[in-house]
Specification:
Protein name: Purine nucleoside phosphorylase
GO molecular function, one term: hydrolase activity
Strand order of the largest sheet: 3-4-18-10-6-8
Radius of gyration: 29 Å
Structural class: alpha+beta
CATH topology of the largest domain: CNF1/YfiH-like putative cysteine hydrolases
Organism: Terriglobus saanensis (strain ATCC BAA-1853 / DSM 23119 / SP1PR4)
CATH class of the largest domain: Alpha Beta
Keywords: Hydrolase, Metal-binding, Transferase, Zinc
Strand content: 15-25%
InterPro entries: Cu_polyphenol_OxRdtase, Cu_polyphenol_OxRdtase_sf, Cytotoxic_necrot_fac-like_cat
Number of domains: 2
Length: 333
């Protein structure tokens, strides 16, 4: 038997194969060792989504983006998310830990800038719904008070935070200046965007015809109900104010599905419960940009309502104040 086994290259207690020789009972190869795959799998970093302006995206010298709520480490607002997911809260709110916000800001800049992130500084504002416009001249400044900021310094990412208010970004193609605005109804009423364009004229010699503008996601006319006092305020400032307001009746799903059950009900407009007054802040800020001399062809509007889309955006109104903040950013290389 031994002679027979030897004739085919085998002996008692061993087996031959193409990958080496194993001794009977052994688990590891005696010949060339084979690396074993790691038993653990690296969890990928959640994707960070941005909204972008198609117009600003055509300018290679500009970096911009409107953040959404996905891809961060914050879990306080949606604790039911899978452990591998979190919100990208970019504002220092009273609910979230500072370390989470700092980690989220780092992620945001890396996602937007890649390897360039280390060369950039993030400049933010202490926002108070004012018409205050700040000009960044100091290369070391990173936090200012106001609701708009502009600069022509390179590698400065200007950021405004929102959770329903309207973010507006501007780029002067000729002079290489950029600006970011936080426009709630008070800032819009105070013409903060128009003021900003005027400041750019003084600071950089900007011609409005050279400006490209982008209006980001915010609460839309579908959801932004306001009081009559707000309408009166706008009518005192803008001749076109009536075009910014609309009467909206609340949807009644049961009535819509079973109209025959409500045949004896009063027609819309004749019910004791009247319509709600809604304001279109997107259009209000677009009109200000037009009045400032910017061409309609150079104004882009994301047109997505934050109050309707809380799976993608933070909304102060829909989430009753318990929410994070998005950040809209712009800078020049």
């Amino acid at each position: 038997m031994d002679d027979l086994l030897a004739s085919i290259g085998l002996t008692h207690g061993t087996r031959s194969s193409r990958k080496g020789t194993w001794t009977e009972g052994a688990r590891k190869p005696v010949g060339k060792k084979k690396k074993l795959a790691a038993e653990t799998t690296k969890v990928p970093t959640p994707k960070i989504d941005f909204d972008f302006s198609s117009l600003l995206a055509k300018a290679p010298a500009v970096v911009h983006g409107f953040s959404t709520r996905s891809g961060g480490v914050t879990r306080v607002y949606r604790p039911g998310l899978p452990k591998s997911q979190g919100d990208l809260n970019l504002g220092f709110t009273s609910h979230d830990e500072r370390k989470n916000v700092e980690a989220n800001r780092t992620r945001m800049m890396q996602a937007l800038l890649g390897k360039e992130a280390k060369d950039w500084k993030l400049v933010t504002l202490q926002q108070r719904h004012t018409p205050v416009v700040r000009v960044l001249r100091d290369t070391e400044a990173t936090h200012l008070r106001g609701d708009a900021v502009m600069t022509d310094l390179p590698h400065r990412l200007l950021g405004v935070m929102t959770a329903d208010c309207i973010p507006v970004l501007l780029y002067d193609r000729k002079n290489g200046a950029v600006a970011a605005f936080h426009a709630g109804w008070r800032g819009t009423l105070a013409r903060i965007v128009e003021r900003g364009v005027g400041t750019m004229k003084i600071e950089y010699g900007t011609d409005p015809k050279d400006i490209v503008a982008a209006i980001g996601a915010g609460i839309g006319p579908c959801c932004y109900s306001v009081g009559e006092e707000v309408r009166h305020e706008f009518e005192s400032q803008f001749a076109y104010a009536p075009e910014l307001f609309s009467d909206v009746y609340e949807s009644e799903p049961i009535r819509d599905k079973y109209p025959l059950l409500f045949m004896t009900a009063r027609a819309p407009g004749h019910s004791p419960i009247g319509p709600q007054l809604h304001l279109d802040l997107w259009e209000a800020n677009r009109r200000q940009l037009l009045d400032a001399g910017i061409s309609a062809k150079k104004i882009s509007v994301v047109g997505t309502c934050t109050a309707c889309g809380t799976s993608r955006y933070f909304s102060h109104r829909t989430e009753e104040g318990f929410t994070g903040r998005m950040m809209s950013v712009i800078g020049v290389r």
